[in-house]
User: Fold this.
Amino acid sequence: MSHISYPFKKTNKSVYQKPASVLSEDNIYWKKLGQPVLVKEFGAIDYLDFSPVEPYYFAATCSVRIQIYDPITKIVTKNISKFLEAAYGGSFRNDGRLLVAGSEEAAVKLFDIQSKNVLRVFTGHTGPVHRTFFTKDQTKIISFSDDKSVCLWDIATEQKLQTFSEHTDYIRAGAPSPVSPDLILSGGYDHVVKLYDCRTNEPALTVNHGSPVESIMFIPSGGLFISAGGTEIKVWDIFNGGKLLANISQHHKTVTTLRLSSNNSRLMSASLDRHVKIYDISTFKVVHNIDFPNAILSMAISENDDVLAVGMIDGVISIRKRGQPIRHNEERKELYKFAPDHVDTSTSVDNVVSKQKMEKGPEFEKHLRKMEFDKALSSVLKSYVAAKQPEKTVSLIQELLRRKVLHVAIDGLSEKDIGGLLRFFKKNLGETRFSRTVIDAVNVFIDVFENQIKLFSEQNLWLYNSLKEEILQEIDVCKRASELEGAIGLLLSGAQVNMTKDMLEINDILAPSSKAQKEIVIDI
Assistant:
């Protein structure tokens, strides 16, 4: 039998391109947070909380202390270490002046941020206190303890007002209501979330999350709350008797923290699976994901989403700060910075490419690379830089503060440069853009030259005394502004009282006519 041979057709081996990933607005928005700065602490980061007022410092509770960080310089500004055993759950009051924290000592402590002094110690729990918060009216404190109880404390009298002991296991999560000082949420390792009304002695609502509850929070309207435990996040409706509205399961390990961001339009969750996931609050769909190098125990985000702080189990705090927006022309300049000069196309066969000139960077960057911090600072204190481009001087000071070497740079300055630095401080102390950095730098300057001020030259001594007078004037202005704010508050309160009184008088006038109408109806 004869065989007919056919030409062989090769298999198509064309490479199919992967579909391009579509960048959503949320992806672009959250990627602008930039590269993280990692700060190492001595123990696992139990809790993070941002101050609600500028300059938006954040408190990191770890080991036997609470560290308060400046999110710009990434350095510790305050260190509260008035604990004998582990501290837990340090959180700010709404005005940013007070901070409350629990501890392994079964005590709740209230601190003044400015002086770091202990103002109140609330004792009465028999187990470690893991979470503490201020109530809506800011006059009371709520504490959640491993002794299976929730306590309400009065700040003024230092007395326990109420105790709720309905849980059957450790209570590691809680939240005060954003609309009422009388409502409290608590979540325990007994899988139960309870809503307490302080006007009664019984739970107003009880729901079962199904796993040990690690974090709970109210939606700002006060009608919904969210619980996190195990790998699930659940949304509950208070007004419908605790009806389950949504069950989100995007993590594959325990969810440890919940936060709201983007003007309460986004929900953030952190987990031991090393991910922070961001959800659209209207659909509860994931819109962005951020990865971290280790299991996450705590998370906090500042006002306007400017700074994201994440605390991990190995004691590392990751701080991401939103970068300044780049204008379109600058983007093009960055994109084509290394492009060759234009090539002249002519009829000749050979094209000659001109040699690209290397762009010369600022002088202080050259010194920074060589670790010559004093020379770097001296270069930005020259009159043509400090006077015409003060932002360059401030940027370098911020970088030296971040590296914790500003004292080294200041100590190596000459007498002439010390005068230039004092002049810079004096001129920019009242400049809103630079005031925070200038204040931090002045503190370092005083630490370095505290015992050498009398050795300054006559001119530098005059500049130093002049700077002191400027600081005293700024303090006086702040005091007057505070007095004016108080006076305006009294005026507004008086106006509100008068308005209420007028409304009552109008009601008294209208009341007889309604009574007469009622009598006519009865007669008929």
Residues 169 and 190 are 5 Å apart (CA to CA). Confidence is low (pLDDT under 50) at residues 326-349, 513-524.
